[in-house]
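Technical annex, item 7. During the second reporting period the consortium partners agreed on a shared format for inverse folding records so that results from different sites could be compared directly. Each record opens with the tokenized structure and is followed by the designed sequence. A conforming record, contributed by the partner at site C, is shown below for reference.
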């Protein structure tokens, strides 16, 4: 099958950690690679955000990246791209109609890419699939209105749910959210993303441990909603353990980070400063060794659309205590591969930590079950197979292309 992936602001060629590059860049890169592996012909369309980029670049994993000239050839934040969507969509339609390669299906990532895909599809009749990644309505509920992007975002997301042929959802929580928004359940396909099991695996080097101290690891960007303050507040319940916090700016820039300073001040006032280590951001290649060094991963966000870090830890054979939100509520099976606790509840988190760190057998059985769950449910190969089946139903049902150009 010929698959067009549209990821307007998140190029699969950008390294995570580069300015503006994060989970979506990685997701698109790994999915494009898995679909290529499964025998599909994949082109990824992303905005040309630098004048030096060539029109096409072959990715090492066998797919092609196309740089679409829409808007200024410099980096523009994802939510400021709305004025350039029409240009992006028109360019796609022209290219698909006149340059000898028309996709069987277009899979868009994030709402702005969804708009571009629908725009192109109106002129080409290429069936469209959308993965939202994050929803404005969820962000607004948890972060307040100013953070969610342009005022029309929620309305566009609602309309997109009906305009595209299929919505790929990542968690049961997202299904419920979209149903509340009026997206028909019959349009949705629940296909969770995968985790890279070549990078995240139980064998391999582990970061050095502090003798005599159980290690709690927690990973993520230095933002309040990731729940690091709650982890620090839970630490008095586990007096022997150390807590390693990975993420945020590189170590030398941490002192300038307002949230990191707030976290250190809280650790001081809770009397646990000697047991909290802020490492700053570490390169992705080193993440596996940090997971493998830990007795437990805590993922305590207030909300989490998908949540890669619990899956990465599970793939490394590390049990997870997570908050019962978003994608984590699906990936962690409470009492089987880890424990789920309510968000923003340091007391419940402390109790769960004390119980798990004091019970070696439970940690071992959780870790074994977690690994099984990752291997059976969260491989990129499985994700590519399931998406291939979703695309297949749309291609079969696709309307014939119009005979004349419009
Ligand atoms: N990560 C990393 N270095 C760090 C901290 C995080 O490479 O110092 C990676 C982590 O391994 C995971 C991603 O960043 O792949 C974070 O994904 P998640 O879904 O947990 O959170 P997001 O940042 O997308 O909200």
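Designed sequence (site C submission):
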């Amino acid at each position: 099958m010929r698959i067009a992936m549209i990821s307007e602001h998140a190029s699969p060629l950008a390294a995570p950690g580069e300015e503006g590059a994060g989970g979506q860049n990685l997701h698109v890169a790994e999915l494009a690679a898995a679909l290529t592996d499964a025998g599909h012909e994949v082109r990824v369309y992303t905005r040309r955000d630098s004048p030096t980029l060539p029109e096409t670049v072959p990715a090492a994993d066998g797919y092609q990246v196309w740089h679409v000239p829409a808007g200024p050839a410099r980096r523009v934040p994802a939510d400021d791209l709305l004025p350039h969507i029409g240009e992006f969509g028109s360019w796609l339609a022209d290219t698909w109609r006149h340059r000898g390669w028309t996709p069987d299906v277009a899979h868009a990532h994030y709402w702005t890419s969804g708009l571009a895909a629908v725009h192109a599809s109106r002129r080409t009749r290429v069936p469209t699939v959308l993965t939202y990644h994050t929803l404005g309505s969820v962000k607004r509920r948890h972060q307040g209105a100013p953070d969610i992007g342009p005022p029309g975002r929620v309305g566009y997301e609602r309309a997109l749910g009906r305009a595209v042929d299929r919505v790929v959802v990542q968690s049961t929580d997202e299904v419920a959210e979209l149903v509340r928004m009026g997206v028909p359940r019959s349009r949705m396909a629940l296909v969770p993303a995968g985790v890279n099991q070549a990078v995240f695996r139980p064998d391999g080097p582990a970061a050095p441990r502090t003798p005599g101290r159980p290690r709690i690891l927690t990973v993520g960007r230095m933002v309040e909603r990731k729940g690091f303050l709650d982890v620090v507040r839970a630490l008095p319940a586990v007096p022997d353990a150390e807590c390693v916090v990975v993420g945020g700016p590189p170590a030398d820039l941490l002192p300038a980070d307002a949230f990191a300073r707030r976290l250190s001040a809280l650790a001081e006032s809770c009397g646990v400063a000697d047991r909290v280590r802020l490492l700053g951001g570490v390169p992705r290649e080193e993440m596996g060794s940090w997971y493998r060094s830990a007795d437990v991963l805590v993922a305590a966000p207030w909300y989490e659309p998908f949540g890669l870090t619990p899956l990465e830890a599970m793939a490394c054979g590390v049990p997870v205590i997570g908050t019962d939100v978003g994608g984590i509520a699906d990936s962690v099976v409470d009492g089987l591969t880890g424990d789920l606790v309510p968000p923003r509840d340091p007391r419940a988190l402390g109790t769960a930590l004390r119980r798990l760190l004091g019970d070696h057998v439970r940690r071992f059985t959780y870790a074994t079950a977690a690994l099984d769950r990752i291997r059976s449910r969260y491989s990129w190969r499985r994700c590519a197979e399931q998406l291939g089946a979703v695309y297949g139903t749309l291609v079969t049902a696709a309307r014939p292309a119009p005979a004349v150009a419009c």
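The longest strand covers residues 41-47. The pocket of uridine-5'-diphosphate is lined by residues 16, 22-23, 219-221, 246-247, 281-282, 284, 287, 306-309, 312 (CB under 6 Å). All partners now use this format for quarterly exchanges.
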